[in-house]
Specification:
Number of strands: 7
Helix content: 40-55%
Distance between the termini: 32 Å
InterPro entries: KR_dom, NAD(P)-bd_dom_sf, Sc_DH/Rdtase_CS, SDR_fam
Protein name: 3-ketoacyl-ACP reductase
Mean pLDDT: 96
Structural class: alpha/beta
Keywords: Oxidoreductase
CATH class: Alpha Beta
Order of helices and strands: EHEHEHEHEHEHHHE
GO molecular function, one term: oxidoreductase activity, acting on CH-OH group of donors
Pfam families: adh_short_C2
Strand order of the largest sheet: 3-2-1-4-5-6-7
Length: 246
């Protein structure tokens, strides 16, 4: 069932991992998709190729979400290519696992610029460019509720995104626009696997009630639901998608 027929979605950080799967799931549900990438054009082009090979419509757009003008460009291209924007998925982000003591000014600034500023710029632009009845879905992390050492600076950015999303829900509700958060648990992505040793990965796996790490494809159906009319009475909420990890 193509719940998102004739809708247009922007997915930031859409070239790899969870973002790539979200792009393909939204397209499979009927949406036209703007696949945002920061630097990996080949990966973004591959996502577009898979979508188009399955009969969908997509375009890859380079943009650094830490730059306000680049976020504006995403909306401009979406409207020029597909006529409108109905759905924004704030997925782009960077990770950082260090104690608060060991985190440098530059590392913390980078986390804030990409994770928080990027989501803020997207929400601000969505406030004036999204169609009535539109959807804003922001990706947080279940780690924000797990009180893990070395996760503090990263989780601080996710907490900020969640509060922005809740405020946006109140601000745009009169237009029928919803704003929700999806909070994955530990997920088999390049970012997670490449930034943790095997011992830590195994420990995270065992924390899940369902006994495994998440997969990018576990997130897609939830995001499609939140992007569809079926979720019209849900807004300002955090939806954990973590297999019972937290």
């Amino acid at each position: 069932m193509r719940k998102l027929e004739n809708k247009t979605a922007i997915v930031t950080g859409g070239s790899r991992g969870i973002g790539a799967n979200l792009c393909e799931c939204l397209a499979a549900a009927g949406a036209n998709v703007v696949v945002n990438y920061a630097s990996n054009k080949n990966a973004a082009d591959e996502v577009v190729f898979r979508i188009e090979s399955a009969g969908g419509k997509a375009v890859a757009v380079q943009a650094d979400v830490a730059q306000s003008a680049d976020v504006t460009k995403l909306f401009d291209v979406a409207e020029e290519t597909f006529g409108k924007v109905d759905i924004l998925v704030n997925n782009a982000g960077v990770v950082h696992y260090k104690t608060i003591q060991d985190t440098t000014d530059e590392e913390f600034a980078r986390l804030m610029q990409v994770n928080v500023n990027g989501a803020f710029y997207g929400m601000r632009k969505a406030s004036v460019r999204l169609t009535d009845g539109g959807r804003v879905i922001s990706i947080s992390s279940s780690a924000a509720r797990m009180f893990l050492p070395t996760y503090g600076p990263y989780c601080a950015t996710k907490g900020a995104i969640e509060q922005l999303s809740r405020s946006l829900a109140k601000e745009l509700g009169h237009r029928g626009i919803t704003s929700n958060i999806v909070a994955p648990g530990p997920t088999e992505t390049e970012l997670f696997l490449g930034n943790n040793d095997e011992e830590k990965i195994d420990r995270m796996r065992k924390m899940a009630a369902l006994g495994r790490l998440g997969k990018p494809e576990d997130m897609g159906p939830v995001v499609v639901f939140l992007a569809s009319e079926d979720s019209g009475w849900i807004t300002g909420q955090v939806i954990p998608v973590n297999g019972g990890t937290a």
